Amino acid sequence: MTEDDLYPLLASLAGGKVYPYVAPLGSDGQPSIAPPWVIFSIITNVAADVLCGQAESVVSVQVDVYSSAITEARTIRDMALDAVQMLKPESIVKTPGYETDLRYHRATLEFQLTV
User: Fold this and answer.
1) With contact defined as beta carbons under 8 Å apart, do 67 and 76 qualify?
2) pLDDT of residue 64
3) For the segment 17-36, what is each residue's pLDDT rounded down to a tens digit?
4) Which superkingdom (predicted)?
5) Please, how many CA atoms are within 13 Å of residue 99, restricted to the half-sphere of its CB?
6) 105 contacts 76 by C-beta, under 8 angstroms
7) Given a cut of 80, is residue 53 above it in pLDDT?
8) Are 59 and 1 within 8 A, CB to CB?
9) Which residue, 76, 68, 71, 62, is CA-closest to 22?
10) Whole-model pTM?
11) Is 28 helix (H, G, I), strand (E, B) or coil?
12) ∠ CA 58-24-68 to the nearest 5 degrees?
């Protein structure tokens, strides 16, 4: 499982403003795009060992949605969860947040995949 596997599933969210790991930044170090946008990250990829080598891996993924409105952030986060259902996500966690520096609401989705 790589970012290239996740991107096509999430690409249509937030008007196509979907990025791995970090949003585009301006020269001031602040995001150079207007909200909403989506950031996705592969947090861990842990392979299970068996007698004959490595078996499946458990991949932890995080999706963060940034928006001016919490309802919009939550809606896009739920759309992200719908978009990855074909991967059979497990251990799903939804967390609200607020970025005081940027004054944006953040809705986070975390889940695990067995691949």
Assistant:
1) yes
2) 98
3) 999 999 999 999 899 999 99
4) Bacteria
5) 18
6) no
7) no
8) yes
9) 62
10) 0.92
11) coil
12) 90
Confidence of residue 16 (pLDDT cuts 50, 70, 90): very high
- In a 13 Å sphere around the CA of 43, the CA atoms on its Cβ side amount to 12
Question: Which stretches does DSSP call E strand in the chain?
Answer: 18-20, 37-50, 53-67, 90-99, 104-114
Distances 26 to 14, 22, 30 between C-alpha atoms, Å: 19, 12, 6
pLDDT bracket for residue 56 (50, 70, 90): confident
The rounded Cα 92 to chain-centroid distance in angstroms is 12
Domains of the chain: 3-114 (3.30.2000.10)
Return d(Cα 115, Cα 7) in angstroms, integer. Answer: 16
Structure tokens at 92: 């799903």
How would you label 43-75 residue by residue, b for 16+ Cβ within 10 Å and e otherwise? eeeeeeeeeeeeeeebbebbbbbbbeeeebbbe
Tokens in use for 10?
């999430």
**pLDDT exceeds 80 at position 55:** no
